[in-house]
Fold these 4 entries.
Entry 1:
Amino acid sequence: MNKLKQVEYDNQIILTTEQLATFYGTTERAIKQNFNNNYDKFQEGLHYYFLKGVQLKEFKNRVENFDLVGKRANALYLWTKRGASRHAKMLGTDRAWDVYDELEENYFNPKTQQRLPQSPTEMLKLAIDSTLETADKVEKLTTRMDDLEQNASIDPGEYNYLSKRISLEVQNYITAHHLILSSKQRAQLYKDVNRGVKEVTGVKTRSQLRKKDFDTVDRYLMDWVPSRATLMIIEQIGDEAKGQERLF
């Protein structure tokens, strides 16, 4: 099998039904039955190719020296690596799996012998390429680690800091505007600031904040003021409370 010449179709290495049957120690009929009984598990272009007409004629002309296609064949199935694997699974015999392992190693993924550098220039190029490849891997790994760190949940210390900042900003606003508010009115201010935090970070609840959100929330709180709608609701709550007082 090591000397088996590779045949490609549509940039994929393929095998015919006859080859599969021979390698797996079964018959072409068994291969065809497996396919017909499990047709929904095969995808054309991924597991197999079905050639006929012009496509088959072109393929025959290209591989006629390999004796892969009968001259009178009017249709042909070609199996990809994934298709061959699926047939091995369906046959379920030790021989099929052993042969598939050999096919995978020596036919679908043959190991090519690496040519050693022949000159100082080639050696230098190889060293530079190796250095660049290593640097690229390090950069990708660093980026991945940074991304994982930034998307990690915010730690308790940072969460508590932001919670205290929110309370402080609400209290500073009340003090600066000399407001006397009920607990219901204060709740509207907290609702306003928390809604803003969710909007600028894209989270549904404050507990979902990530490390990368910390600076965003911190900047937001520095400039926070309640919306006009929130102020009107607070005013309405105050008017309702006064109206209820008059009733008594």
Entry 2:
Amino acid sequence: MKLLDLQNIYHKELDAIYGKDEVNSFFYLCTEHYLNVPRIQMTLEPEFTITKPETDTFFTVLEELKQQKPIQYILRETEFYGLPFKVNEHVLIPRPETEELVDLIIKCHSERSEKSQIKILDIGTGSGCIAISLAKNLPNADVYALDISKEALSVAKENAKLNNVNIRFIEANILNEICHSALDAQSTYDIIVSNPPYVRELEKQEIKPNVLDNEPHLALFVEDNNPLVFYKAITNFALKNLKENGRLYFEINQYLGEETRELLIDADFRDVDLIKDLNGNYRILKGKRF
């Protein structure tokens, strides 16, 4: 079957769901992933044909896309901060907003990392995208990554190996005081960073079906009556386990920016800043332990 004919079928079946541009993006991701055929080759060879088994694979992907399964889960891979990552249903698909958080930390600490070793803890690591990107871009960083999910840590360990970085992984629940005691044994950190669950149940109607029906709710949602539960636990932990002048970084719920900011101020953190993402939403919070 000709690839161009197959692309037309994708548009016919999917444009109403995703729009033409996104369908094109899906199709080219598939041609590169399954065929190692770059987009330009379709332009240069409009008669390019594929075998029946290859065609069957594309039709299987088409059916999954019609069910609004994320393309990253179908291909079982994605890119984050210029690095390759494996993903599956046990971890969140990394977002561009989280890349902004990673970029901020790298820019704030790259000079210090070149001069001496800094110790970093990523809480709720999921796929490992934050911890691994920091380890890759901050020379001499000693990076720890924590998650409650054994399955998520398995993915994160695979990604650390894929990107050739050394991360110390910890399976623990940050909401459990026993976890705090275990981490105390690792001494103190220069940086603690977290993108914890922060979407309230009442905000579910804002979530697209491809996210709601596929991504792990454990990593997404919190109860309406205690939406800052993870931020409170991590802030209390940071008070004991950040070095003097150590930095705490959060990705946050855009609707709860002031409440989360007050949490750090009440805990006597200094230089507390709310930072907007590229979409103009308050998405990052940082503070310094005094």
Entry 3:
Amino acid sequence: MQHRNLGHTGMIVSPLCLGAMMFGKWGEPDHDTSIGIIHRALDEGINFIDTADIYSRGESETIVGKALAGGKRDDVILATKFHGPMDIEMGESGGDPNHRGNSRRWIIKEVEESLTRLQTDWIDLYQVHRPDPGTDDDETISALTDLQTQGKIRAFGSSTFPAHRIVEGQWISEKRGLGRFVTEQPPYSLLVRGVEADVLPVAEQYHMGVIPWSPLAGGWLSGKVRKGDGQPETNRSKRRPEMFDMSKPENARKLDAVEELALLADDAGMSLIHLAIAFVMQHPAVTAPIIGPRTMEHLESQLGAADVTLSSDILDRIDEIVPPGVNLSTGDAGYQPDALQEPFLRRRRTA
């Protein structure tokens, strides 16, 4: 694989990043099977792995740690994330409010937990999984800088941050003489192009590495979602059926676009999967899309995308199907600020 610079960190990574979200309870529960997928990816030239503490409540990190034991760790750029609650299952309410978030208190505790699960002394890229409206970015960046100074992390980045928060983070780092976010991990796909309007240009301006998540749009671009087939029977659709509820107008729009994109891929002599991943990879701001296979078949179907280059004609046709800078569903943005979720923050109260 043709390697790429991870921003200006000096770290060199493969053009595909192996995402480990589906290893463990959320996807493939058998550890040996998941480890086999990781080893296969490494054998094919992938040297970049991304996980998070919240994935199956630490089980994903445990699997990755097992897979890299025995001498493989030194050859891998290893990334993980913190922010989500670790004392409750995904979707549950309650739990200890201090066992989550972006505070110094939680960061200092949780990095040790991740290091233990990953069986390593250092994390190459430690990422803030989502913004935290209750914590000043100064607090977060200061704590991450201390971890960097201590050698527990080599670099740190953000994930699914809006453009203004990225700029604010850079300003804080410069103002206070702290380390800075050197990467951003946004949602980006043929169906989710909102980040093209601001996040990607801002990341490029600050020489940040960009590692987009869900280039297959949560399975919509896997080739298994087609008109007339009904709701797909996939692991993700079982966990989150609302994502594939075709009665929703936004999902109907996505389904129409998928049909046109599938025809475009057929005409170009490639799979829809390769078209989707190559599209993300070809943006000048992007370092490496994150592929998240659950099975060996998934991995094999995605690896070849690293060798695909899309012509200008194909890219122009994609723009006709899904206009640049547009998310066909607002729910695919990955993060909604409180100002949108809480009505009282955007409306004056009346009697």
Entry 4:
Amino acid sequence: MPELPEVEVVRRGLHEHLVGRTFDAVDILHPRAVRTNTVSLSEVLPGLTITGTGRRGKFMWLTLSNEAALVVHLRMSGQMLVGAPGVVQSPHLRIRALLGDVELDFVDQRTFGSWQYAPLIDALPAPVAHIAPDPFEPSFDPVAVARRIRRKNSAVKTVLLDQTVVSGIGSIYADEAMWAAGVKPTRKARALRQRDAVALLSEARSVMARALEQGGTSFDSLYVNVNGASGYFSRSLHAYGQAGEPCARCSTPIEKTVVNGRSSYYCPKCQVL
């Protein structure tokens, strides 16, 4: 599933190409892509202008001229592609929207993703209001979030994936942040010192910032930006997916374990906290 850097790459592309454009027509090609709506997107979106874009964690949205939002859930395989009308002919095309001389296409092979029309509440779409701030938001308080992490009795890896504690960190960047901070994924969060929890959040932000610079992480063709290009951060991973490979710090082979049903990769020698 795309994590914060991948979603942010897509949001930036949408902002660059779509802000100021008006929906002319919206064609729904698969009902699952609009399953969370109580209104018809084909009826409500035409005539509305995109005034901006937003993101919190893994959630992104287009703000609309009627003070509502179009929330986009990429889920496992969703793609937002912007280009000339009629170019995208994928069998997995779920929604086609025409905005002047530009077409916005939602392609989703596994049909887990969706578009959702929603009101804005204090500048956030209603479906996103329950999500905790992410490390890139100005209001993010790492000291306070570290305290919240240390109140949890779960493994550190599990807490980092809890989007009500801190949003945007998925399995890839959780493993990379724990490797960088020297924290073992199975360690109980409540056993962390405050300074270690703060350092872990700092490393999470740092690794996601580096991923952003490289267009995110692509392991296959399912994650691409709005122009269809892949990200290259997978070449810079130190822990995630590296089982059996030598640790970049100490050369000890990276090991794989399972934490609360999620695969986790770590160095058994370096990650001792």
